[in-house]
């Protein structure tokens, strides 16, 4: 087996749908095409959004489609100590700071500066708490404050990276995102920190995921560099769109996969990836997908 390690990391906010099967299949095929390991990580750090039992359903759906991880799955909710260690390193280096701002506070601060919402409606943090919480109204300083990546970490601010499908990518993280959250005010870990720590801890060499997550990559590379962690190769796959032209998701009513015929579901997911599977059995179709897979990591 090669040194390749890939992963599929679903959030258990519901069962897999057609779009999430595309991402799962792509990550599995890429791992198999390179003779590597394929892992499953349940990203359940956002506990309030998780649906009880959805993790079990997801694992059953993957198995029904012939997608079996090479190691037992892990759950992010059990890995808080690793995230705490990483956060403490950033705090001790002066690269993170406490923040008492709510989303409403951020929106109002941006409006006062006549700054419109940037791309994708993301709020670029205006730096309200960069110099400490002194002077903030008592009502704003909550017992649990968030932790943000701070301005001392922004050198260089431009992150250039190469996507195996999308090609050359670049982002000025400070200007386009701002000081992003590492741990939320309610104590829950932010996706950006958790995913970086877990990918490194699990030895992930290649991240294959949906194109909607490409915008997160620069932030994650920046954190990897600050923490001295390796940067995986990235490949972002085409999205499955709903009737309204937006990404198919649980939020816009995506239905759970109909796995009465797993072979049909896999064929449809493969078609989104540009693969034509006509083999008569699921096992043969998956092997056919591996043979057809066009993407190879850069040397």
From TrEMBL:
EC numbers on record: 6.1.1.-
Residue ranges annotated as motif 'HIGH' region: 10-20
Organism of derivation: Caldimonas thermodepolymerans
Binding site for Zn(2+): 99, 101, 125, 129
Pfam family membership, one: tRNA-synt_1c
Gene3D superfamilies in UniProt: HUPs
Similarity field: Belongs to the class-I aminoacyl-tRNA synthetase family. GluQ subfamily.
List of residues binding ATP: 250
Swiss-Prot/TrEMBL keywords: Aminoacyl-tRNA synthetase, ATP-binding, Ligase, Metal-binding, Nucleotide-binding, Protein biosynthesis, Zinc
Annotated coiled-coil segments of the chain: none
GO cellular component terms, semicolon-separated: cytosol
UniProt domain Glutamyl/glutaminyl-tRNA synthetase class Ib catalytic: residue ranges: 7-254
Residues engaged in binding L-glutamate: 7-11, 43, 191, 209
SUPFAM superfamilies associated with the record: Nucleotidylyl transferase
Cofactor note: Binds 1 zinc ion per subunit.
Biological processes annotated in GO: glutamyl-tRNA aminoacylation; tRNA modification
Gene this chain is encoded by: gluQ
Motif 'KMSKS' region, residue range(s) on this chain: 247-251
UniProt keyword Nucleotide-binding present: yes
Official protein name in the record: Glutamyl-Q tRNA(Asp) synthetase
Cross-referenced NCBIfam families: PRK05710.1-2 (NF004313), PRK05710.1-3 (NF004314), PRK05710.1-4 (NF004315), queuosine_YadB (TIGR03838)
Taxonomy, superkingdom: Bacteria
Cofactor requirements of the protein: Zn(2+)
């Amino acid at each position: 087996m090669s040194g390749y390690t890939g992963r599929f990391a679903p959030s258990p906010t519901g069962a897999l749908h057609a779009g999430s099967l595309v991402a799962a299949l792509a990550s599995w095929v890429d791992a198999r095409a390179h003779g590597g390991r394929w892992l499953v990580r349940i990203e359940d750090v956002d506990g309030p959004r998780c649906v009880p039992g959805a993790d079990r359903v997801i694992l059953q759906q993957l198995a029904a489609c012939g997608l079996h991880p090479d190691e037992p799955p892990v759950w992010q909710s059990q890995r808080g100590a690793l995230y705490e260690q990483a956060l403490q390193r950033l705090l001790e280096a002066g690269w993170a700071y406490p923040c008492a701002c709510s989303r409403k506070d951020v929106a109002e601060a941006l409006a006062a500066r006549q700054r419109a919402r940037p791309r994708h409606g993301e709020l670029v943090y205006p730096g309200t708490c960069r110099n400490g919480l002194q002077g903030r109204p008592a009502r704003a300083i909550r017992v649990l404050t968030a932790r943000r990546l701070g301005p001392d970490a922004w050198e260089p601010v431009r992150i250039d990276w190469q996507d195996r499908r999308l090609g050359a990518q670049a982002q000025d993280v400070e200007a386009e995102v701002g000081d992003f959250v590492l741990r939320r005010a309610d104590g829950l870990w932010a996706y950006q920190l958790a995913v970086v720590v877990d990918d490194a801890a699990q030895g992930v060499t290649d991240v294959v995921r949906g194109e909607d997550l490409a915008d997160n990559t620069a932030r994650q590379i920046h954190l990897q560099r600050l923490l001295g962690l390796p940067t995986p190769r990235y490949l972002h796959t085409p999205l499955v769109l709903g009737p309204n032209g937006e990404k198919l998701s649980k939020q816009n009513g995506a239905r759970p996969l109909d796995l009465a015929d797993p072979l049909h579901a896999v064929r449809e997911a493969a078609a989104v990836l540009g693969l034509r599977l006509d083999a008569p059995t699921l096992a043969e179709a998956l092997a056919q997908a591996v043979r057809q897979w066009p993407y190879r990591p850069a040397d």
